[in-house]
Design a protein that fits this description.
Layout lengths: L2 H4 L5 E3 L12 H4 L12 E3 L8 H5 L7 H20 L3 H5 L1 H20 L4 H28 L6 H26 L2 H19 L6 H6 L3 H14 L7 H18 L12 H26 L8 H10 L4 H34 L3 H28 L3 H21 L7
Antiparallel strand pairs: 1-2
Helix pairs in contact: 4-7, 4-17, 6-7, 6-9, 8-14, 13-16, 13-17, 15-16, 16-17
GO cellular component, one term: membrane
Membrane topology: Multi-pass membrane protein
Protein name: Major facilitator superfamily (MFS) profile domain-containing protein
Length: 409
C-alpha cells in the first residue's frame, strides 16, 4: 500500500518556466516555455507535500507517466506468480525453509528498490518484492494454522486481518515524517529483519512432517509444544498414532482438483463464474480506491489514513451481517453500496462529499472482501475448497493488476 506515496504525483512544470510565473497552463507541463513546439526534457516539481517519489526521481511525467502505474501492476503480477505458480513449493519442500527463502527474496528486493538507478530496475525488483511478500505471508499463515487446533484458527485469522489494517494506518504516518521513497523502503526492511529473528523459534509444521514421512521429527516438535504449553504428556504415544493415521487416511483419499473441475457441473459452473468475476471486480475496486485516494481531493495524508481507519470495523461488521442477514444478502448489499458510492464520487462536485463517498466505497469493498472469503469456501465440496478459493482469489489479483491505471483515466 506504500506505493501511493512511492509514486506520489506532485504538480510539475517544464524547467524553463520561470518559478514566479503566474499564468501557468497545462501546455507548459510537457512542452517548453520558450518554444512550445519542442517537447520538455527537464522538469521542476512542487515538493511541498512529498519530497522525493519515483515520479520526481525518474521523471515519470508526460510520455513516461504510465511507468508509475506499470510499477504497481508488476507488483500485483508478482502476487499472481507467487500464488498460482510457486504455491506448491512449501508443500513439496516444507514450510520453514521456504519461509527463509521468501524472507530473503523480499529483503534483498526491497534494498534493490531503495538503491534503484532507473525505473526499469525499480519495476523488476518490485515484482520480486511481491513474490517474496506473498510467498512469505502465505507460508507463514499455513504454518501457524497447522501448528494449532481448529478451536483457535478463526481467532488467528481475525487477528491477522487486524494486523493488515493497523499497518495500513501506519503508512501515512511514516510517509509524513520520511517523505522519501528510498528511505521508506529502508524503513520497511527494518521490521522484516526483526521478523527473520522470529524464524529461529519457528518449528516446522508437524502435519507436514508426518505427511512427508518425517515422523520422528514431528514427534520431537509435538513433544516440545506439549512441554512449552505445560500440558500433560500422558497418552502422547496413543494420540500421536491417531494423528498419523488420520493424516495418512486424508492423504490417501485426497484427489488433486483443478480449475476445470469447477466447471464440470451446472451448479459448480454457475458459482465459479459468478465468484471469479466478483473477485476480479473486488480486487479492481479495492486497490482502485486505495491507490488513488489523492485523486478525490483533500489532504492526501489524512485521506489515506481515513481509508485505513474506515476498514477497522469491517471485519466486525462482516461477522454481524453474515450472522443476521446471511451470506447472499450481505454479499449483494455491500456490492450495491460500492456501486452507489462509486457513482456518487463521479457526481459530487464538493471535495468533502467526494472524499466521503470514496471512504464509504472503501469501507464497503473492505467488508465485502471478508464476506466473500467466508462465502466462497462454504459453497464448494471439501476436496474442491482449496482449489475454488485459490482460483477465485487469483482473479482478484488480475483485477488489482489493472487498478493502478484507474488513476490515469
Amino acid at each position: 500500500m506504500g506505493f501511493s506515496f512511492f509514486a506520489y504525483q506532485p504538480e510539475f512544470w517544464c524547467s524553463d518556466v520561470p518559478i514566479d510565473y503566474q499564468n501557468k497552463t497545462e501546455d507548459m507541463k510537457c512542452k517548453k516555455f520558450v518554444n512550445s513546439s519542442e517537447l520538455c526534457t527537464e522538469w521542476q516539481y512542487n515538493r511541498n507535500d512529498f519530497h522525493k517519489s519515483i515520479i520526481t526521481e525518474f521523471d515519470l511525467v508526460c510520455d513516461r507517466s504510465n511507468y508509475a502505474s506499470l510499477t504497481q501492476s508488476f507488483y500485483m503480477l508478482g502476487y499472481l506468480v507467487s500464488g498460482l505458480i510457486l504455491s506448491f513449493l512449501p508443500d513439496k519442500y516444507g514450510r520453514r525453509p521456504l519461509c527463509w527463502i521468501y524472507f530473503l527474496i523480499e529483503v534483498i528486493s526491497l534494498i534493490a528498490c531503495a538503491l534503484s538507478v532507473n525505473i526499469y530496475q525499480y519495476i523488476i525488483f518490485r515484482l520480486f518484492v511481491a513474490i517474496g511478500g506473498c510467498g512469505r505471508t502465505g507460508t507463514m499463515c499455513v504454518t501457524l494454522m497447522e501448528n494449532m487446533g481448529p478451536k483457535h484458527r478463526s481467532d488467528i485469522y481475525l487477528v491477522g486481518g487486524m494486523g493488515w489494517l493497523v499497518g495500513y494506518c501506519l503508512i501515512p504516518v511514516m510517509a509524513y515524517f520520511i517523505q522519501d521513497f528510498r528511505y521508506m523502503h529502508w524503513a520497511v526492511v527494518c521490521p522484516l529483519v526483526c521478523m527473520i529473528c522470529w524464524l529461529f523459534f519457528l518449528n516446522e509444521s508437524p502435519r507436514w512432517l508426518i505427511t512427508s514421512g518425517h515422523t520422528d521429527k514431528a514427534e520431537r516438535v509435538l513433544r516440545q509444544i506439549v512441554e512449552q504449553n505445560g500440558l500433560n504428556d500422558e497418552n502422547f504415544d496413543e494420540k500421536f498414532a491417531e494423528l498419523k493415521a488420520h493424516l495418512h487416511l486424508s492423504q490417501q483419499n485426497e484427489k488433486t482438483y483443478t480449475f476445470f473441475d469447477l466447471l464440470r457441473t451446472p451448479n459448480l459452473r454457475k458459482y465459479s463464474i459468478v465468484f471469479c468475476f466478483s473477485w476480479l471486480v473486488i480486487g479492481l475496486v479495492y486497490y482502485g480506491f486505495s491507490l488513488n485516494m489523492a485523486d478525490f481531493g483533500g489532504n492526501f495524508y489524512i485521506s489515506f489514513l481515513m481509508g485505513g481507519v474506515v476498514e477497522l470495523p469491517s471485519s466486525i461488521i462482516a461477522i454481524l451481517t453474515l450472522r443476521y442477514f446471511g451470506r447472499k444478502k450481505s454479499f449483494f448489499g455491500f456490492l450495491t453500496i460500492i456501486s452507489m458510492a462509486s457513482l456518487a464520487v463521479i457526481a459530487a462536485n464538493d471535495t468533502l462529499l467526494k472524499v466521503s463517498f470514496a471512504l464509504i466505497g472503501k469501507f464497503a469493498v473492505g467488508t465485502v472482501w471478508w464476506v466473500v472469503e467466508v462465502y466462497v469456501p462454504e459453497l464448494y465440496p471439501t476436496l474442491m475448497r482449496n482449489c475454488a478459493s485459490g482460483s477465485s482469489q487469483a482473479m482478484a489479483r488480475l483485477g488489482s493488476t489493472a487498478s493502478p491505471f484507474m488513476g490515469d483515466l
